[in-house]
Amino acid sequence: MLKRILKSVPCAAFSGLATLLVSLEPAGAANGLGQPLPGQIGLQLAATPVAREIHQFYDFTNLIIIAIAVFVLLLMLLVMVRFSEKRNPTPTATTHNTFLEVAWTVIPIFILVAIAIPSFKLLMLQYSYPKPDLTIKAIGNAWFWEHQYPDHGNFLVTSSVLSDEEVNARIKKGIATPRLLAVDNEIAVPVDKVVHVLVTSNDVIHAWTIPSFGSKTDAVPGRVTATWFKAEQEGIYYGQCSELCGINHAYMPIAVRVVSETVFDDWAAAMKAKDKKKAKEILDKVALEQAGVTNVVQLESSTAN
């Protein structure tokens, strides 16, 4: 991450500084991976190859934007100083300059080509779907999400935003639970596995979005769109509906818990057996471990008592 920031200092000074300051926070969700931070300027940290390429393209484009802005500013200052009425009382009668006219036509073409090449490469990466290890069907509803697992008996996970009381209860257990992002039933995926997400809607247009995955696609009634990701680090990753869909649009979060393959298999087996209580206990235990709570067994027993 530091290497990427140093490479992009000229093009993203503010976002680079913000990311560097964020990296000094404790590990886990506190470092901006999987969720936003108060006062954050830059993008959420990347957790997938696609998100990493998006960040690089973002930095590269900012470099060009800032270079153009600085050039135009300097040019304006030069014109205001050098060609002021005081310094140049007799204005020139020049109306054409072949070199300048060719330059301001050709240079923008080169700039657009320089932007287009990495842009097309990024689009190819986003829409060249590798063979999936897991397929999930995400269904938008007003105003909650459902996720089906067709590879595992087609069990269904319904996720709704947590109330403030439920958020506080989970925080007391030691589980980091951001308000308006946490849900009652998280979905789980295995780490370092290719996941295809088929997205649709039962009512109006929604959008399935996880910023740290670089995944965003519309959920359209009567149609199936798709996205994919390969999460490279365990943890919790939050997203939201990104298409204005009605009065409770702001209360449609998505929570994806990335776990080891063994934990995922145990969770999926519990869901297939319709043992939702056991499945929730499995993810809660992982959440405590990922939050850095060392003595999970003791905490669970004290909570039960």
Give an overview of the whole structure.
The chain has 305 residues and is an alpha+beta fold. It is 41% helix and 19% strand. The two termini are 44 Å apart. It has 2 domains: 2-127, Helix Hairpins (Orthogonal Bundle), CATH 1.10.287; 134-304, Cupredoxins -  blue copper proteins (Immunoglobulin-like). It has 8 helices and 10 strands. Helix 3 (49-82) packs antiparallel against helix 4 and helix 6 packs antiparallel against helix 7. The radius of gyration is 25 Å and the shape is elongated. It has helices at residues 2-7, 13-22, 49-82, 98-127, 164-173, 261-272, 276-290, 296-304; strands at residues 134-141, 144-149, 155-159, 187-190, 195-201, 206-210, 215-219, 225-229, 235-240, 253-259.
Summarize the structure.
The chain has 305 residues and is α+β, with helices and mostly antiparallel strands. It is 41% helix and 19% strand. The chain has two domains: 2-127, Helix Hairpins (Orthogonal Bundle); 134-304, Cupredoxins -  blue copper proteins (Immunoglobulin-like, Sandwich).
Question: What attributes does this structure have?
Answer:
Immunoglobulin-like, three-stranded mixed beta sheet, 8 helices, Helix Hairpins, five-stranded mixed beta sheet, single chain, 305 residues, alpha+beta, 19% strand, elongated
